């Protein structure tokens, strides 16, 4: 049975556009594939930054780990296990200051790991998977818009996913979420506007 990993990065809970879009994607995916969906909510998970014990754990054989190393590296092991078990991945994230939230960057730092998800020759070891990246932003950064060049998030996420071997990546830019905050549209209508792109990707 196919498995979908949903990685959610927004701290806004039920008010998050990226979460609503990721949920719509997951529903579409489940209808198409009939598989299992695992949600990794980074806002409610404890996602520590990389530390010295983590680095020691990542570059030391397991049998030589100190208790501190083992504790520090465990969350990386858990995140990577979820990633490897999935057939497809969807990342739902807001855009912060033209890039991604710190929580999502921390998750990336845990899953991009030497000897586990990439090799000494910089070959990605996470192969045969498909990823969809959904980026919600207040402004419009779509190709052809004046602010297209300020969108660092799309290029970075495609680059880092490709680095670990996930090269089949679809990016959905859901720009203009400020219209919801300003009362010019509703969350439901905004999500409905993205329905075609979400259906095609799922």
* Shape verdict: globular
The CATH superfamily bears the name: Flavodoxin domain
Q: Structural class, judged by helices and strands? A: alpha/beta
Q: CATH first level: which class? A: Alpha Beta
Biggest sheet architecture = 5 strands, parallel
Strand and helix order: EHEHHEHEHEHHH
Looking at the overall shape, the CATH architecture is 3-Layer(aba) Sandwich
Walk me through the topology.
Elements: E1 3-8, H1 17-33, E2 36-41, H2 52-58, H3 67-85, E3 88-94, H4 102-111, E4 130-137, H5 152-163, E5 168-175, H6 178-181, H7 187-193, H8 195-201
Parallel strand pairs: 1-2, 1-3, 3-4, 4-5
Description:
This protein has one domain (3-201): Rossmann fold (3-Layer(aba) Sandwich), CATH 3.40.50.360. Helix content is 41%, strand content 17%. The protein has helices at residues 17-33, 52-58, 67-85, 102-111, 152-163, 178-181, 187-193, 195-201, and strands at 3-8, 36-41, 88-94, 130-137, 168-175. Strands 2-1-3-4-5 form a five-stranded parallel sheet, sandwiched between helices. Helix 1 (17-33) links the parallel strand 1 (3-8) and strand 2 (36-41).
Can I get a quick summary?
The protein is α/β, with parallel strands linked by helices. It is built from eight helices and five strands; from the N terminus they run βαβααβαβαβααα. Strand 4, helix 5 and strand 5 (168-175) form a beta-alpha-beta unit.
